Amino acid sequence: xxxxxxxxxxxxxxxxxxxxxxxxxxxxxxxxxxxxxxxxxxxxxxxxxxxxxxxxxxxxxxxxxxxxxxxxxxxxxxxxxxxxxxxxxxxxxxxxxxxxxxxxxxxxxxxxxxxxxxxxxxxxxxxxxxxxxxxxxxxxxxxxxxxxxxxxxxxxxxxxxxxxxxx
Length: 167
Fold this sequence. Notes:
Layout: H1 14-47, H2 50-59, H3 61-69, E1 84-85, E2 89-90, E3 94-100, E4 103-113, E5 119-129, E6 141-145, H4 150-163
Antiparallel strand pairs: 1-2, 3-4, 4-5, 5-6
Helix pairs in contact: 1-2
InterPro entries: DUF6022
Protein name: DUF6022 family protein
Pfam family, one: DUF6022
């Protein structure tokens, strides 16, 4: 698989970060999925949903690496019992309330901070997946919110899912 890397620059808005991240995901997600499918389908038989974490461990780090190189802080405070996949996706900062068993949606959120450690918005990572077999039925997608407080982020995610027809 050719290495497509997202382009991130200091001073980008949360909207521009989301757009650049979605261009990166659109360019690489399906080829990576096909490349890893047999390995992940086998892993799913043993570790179930954790197989999606193995996929995200390959898909997401280039995005988060470029953001950090551009001076952004992506991962907030981490507790000892936090479970993190894809370098910066924390299960304690995620919800899975949408879809059917063969097309579930988990949303992770990351409050993005600039080089002055000021929050500029929240990056939402949407991961469609199946609980019945290893399957990613569509491209992972990024959404953005201006809100940076947990309660407002959760409300914003519900609105995103309602508007996307997934709720």
